[in-house]
Every structure is written in C-alpha cells, then in structure tokens.
Amino acid sequence: MATVTLTNIKKTYDGKVTAVQDFNLTINSGEFVVFVGPSGCGKSTTLRMIAGLESVTGGTIAIDGRIVNEVHPKDRDIAMVFQNYALYPHMTVYKNMAFGLMLRRMPRARIRERVERAAHMLGLHDLLERKPKALSGGQRQRVALGRAIVREPKVFLFDEPLSNLDARLRITTRTELKNLHQRLKTTTVYVTHDQEEAMTLGDRIVVMSAGLIQQVDSPMKIYRSPVNRFVAAFLGSPPMNFLSGTLREAIAAEGAPGIVFDFADVPALRLRETDDVALRPHLGRAMVLGFRPGAMSERPIGKFEGRGNVMRLVTHVIEPLGDVIDVSCSTPKGQPVMARIAAREGFPIGQTVDFHLDMNHVHVFEPGEFGRNLLAH
Question: In the chain, what are the domain boundaries?
Fold first, then answer.
C-alpha cells in the first residue's frame, strides 16, 4: 500500500492545449479513488501521468513521499489494467499472468504460488491452460486483473476496465472489484466516465471537467451536496432537474415570512427556514432550482403537507421501472421536469398533475454550467 500525492499537476500538449491544470490531490494508503467526468476532461491523462506513460508539464507526483516525475514506469511499483485487456494472444492464461514476474527473474516456485493464489481469488483456476481467444470478455478482464494482482504492487491503476463488457457482466465484475479491494487493501486509482461505477466503487470520487477538479468527496456527500451545477448534473440517474427562477421574500398571501423560489409559470416554492441565512444575500437575483426526480411524490411530504411545495406540471411520458415510474413532465411554459414516483396503474398522461416536492432535498444554484450551489454544506 502507498500514498500517492499529486501537487500542482499540469499537462499541456505542444504548449497550447491544456489537458490538466492545477491538479492537487492526496490519495491515502489503501484508498479506492475514482476519477470521473466526461470525455476530454483529463481523467485518463492524469492516470497516465501517475503511471509514467505521460510526462508531467508542471508539478510533482510522489508515491510514498518519493517524487517519481523522472522515474521510469517499470520502477514506480504500480500495476495498470487497461480497457482493451492487452493480453498476449499466443500465451496461456497462466503465462499471461506470470509473464511480468518472469521478466523480473522471480523464482518459478514463487511465480506459481502467486499465480495460483490470484487464479483462485478470481475464479480462473480451471482456465489457466486456455488462451485468450477461448475466453469470454469477462474472463479476459479477470485475467488482466490477475496479471496486475500477482505483481503485488504499491498502487493499482484502472483505465475504464469494464467499458467493453455488457451491462450485466459490468455489474458482476464491479462487485468482484469491490470485494477484491476489500481483501487486498491496495491503493487504487480508477478512471471511468460511468457515474454509476464511480458511485458504487469509490471511497472518494474526483469529479473533473476541462482539466480541473470540480469536487472531491465521498460518493454520498457528492450526490447529496454537489458544490456546483456541473457536479449535480453529472452524477445521478435520472439526472437532476433544473428550473430557472428568482429568489424573493414571501408575500402575506403566501403565509409566514420567509424566502420563496419564484417561477414564471408555476406557483412559488417555499424554501426551508434553515436556508434563509445562505439565501438572503441573493434575494432578487435570477437563480436555478435543482432537485432529483426522486424528491417528488404524488402525496404531501413532511411538515409542508402541500403548503408551498406543490408543482403543477403537465405529464407527457411514463417509463415503468417496477416499483417506481419515471414521469416526463414540463411546466406550462415548457421547462422539462422528470419525476420518479411510486408505481401505480392508470397514471394520467397529457394532463396537469400536482406533484409534491421534498424541500429538504432541493438545491439553489447560481446561473451557468458551473454555477455555485448556495446550499452546499
């Protein structure tokens, strides 16, 4: 196990294109950290810099306190698993897993011990004499994992290792990876564009965009308290709803004093009293209200009991998902809203329906793609 420290990391190509900038992160010993973000955000470039496959333009990378900027990849004591498996087609599973140890001139008995231990761990023991062409995609991925495990490195690096698998196999292999990390406790850095993988695998998630870190935290903290609109939109399925409006004081007709979020085409929503301090400096400004589809219900929610938290929406499409249904809606003026509610027969389509919004799970963002979350804690 090892601590990996990235300090002021920068990567530019041809002195013009900046792929990563001002990247600062400490990955603790034994931690599983996931880099997630859209294509081109710099996550794979950062992983390749840790591996030594890309040079660092600025800043330092240290493994257990040793700066490795100029250290050759083979001398960094890391193991990397690639998206395309990178197996030798002419070698058996055993030789694929053992090859790196053979190059290091490790004694044969020790190589066999390590390979067989990893094969048992990954359910490959009966496949050791097969070649890659005789394996399924999931089995090939496990061989690639086994090849990394036998190295017993300080750090595992995974570059979108599950993207070539079908949906069901991805879920199964994801579980295997999680169990494997809990057993080995090896420091792990994992790159993916799949937010579900990030949420289920990581001890911490690093959300990236345009070469910059947007937020670093535990999966549930990022899901429940995204620091900006980009993070809120990227994590979560279905994605968070965003509606434009204005913050203002409640009027007498709206009951007790407080702050409401005013829309042009649906009734104003009363925000929580506990949020008044954070929101009051922004009264009168255009803002964006964010809420997850699961924060909506057909029934009154909490102490509001239908007072000040009702959204009157036009329903368009239903997607049945077993115990819940996703309802595609819109405000009268066409702002889209997705609601995830308890399933029932005969839900009205093409009609105006009152939905109740749980005001304990709303966010208020400044305008713009990276607008700050005023209610982030």
Answer: 4-227, 241-365
The model's pTM is 0.88
Sheet with 310-320, strands from edge to edge, namely 296-297, 352-357, 310-320, 324-330, 336-342
Residue with tokens 């709803």: 241
**Percent helix / strand / coil, the chain, rounded to 5:** 30, 30, 35
Q: Name beta bridge partners: 291.
A: 241, 362
Reading the block at residue 361, the tokens are 């799970």
Alpha carbons 289 and 245: distance in angstroms, whole number: 7
The tokens describing 377, both together, are 């804690």
CATH of 4-227 among 3.30.70.100, 3.40.1160.10, 3.90.1030.10, 3.40.50.300: 3.40.50.300
Q: Nearest-5° angle of CA 265, CA 339, CA 204?
A: 115
> Which residue, 268, 233, 243, is CA-closest to 333?
243
d(CA 211, CA 203): 22
pLDDT tens digits, one per residue of 118-167: 888 888 888 999 999 999 888 888 898 888 888 888 999 999 888 777 77
Report, as an integer, the average pLDDT of 257-277: 87
Residue indicated by tokens 């670093």: 216
